Amino acid sequence: MANKPILAIDHLEKKYGDTVVLKDINEQIQSGEVVCVIGPSGAGKSTFLRCLNLLEQPTAGEVRYKGQDILKFNKTQLSDYREKVGMVFQNFNLFPNMTVLENLKLAPKRVKHLSDSDATDAALTLLERVGLKDKAQVYPDSLSGGQKQRVAIARALAMNPEVLLFDEPTSALDPEMVGEVLSVMQELAEEGMTMVVVTHEMGFAREVANRVWFMADGYIQEDGTPNEVFEHPKTERAQDFIAKIIGN
Ligand SMILES: Nc1ncnc2c1ncn2[C@@H]1O[C@H](COP(=O)(O)OP(=O)(O)OP(=O)(O)O)[C@@H](O)[C@H]1O
Question: Residue ranges of the ABC transporter domain (predicted)?
Answer without folding.
Answer: 7-242
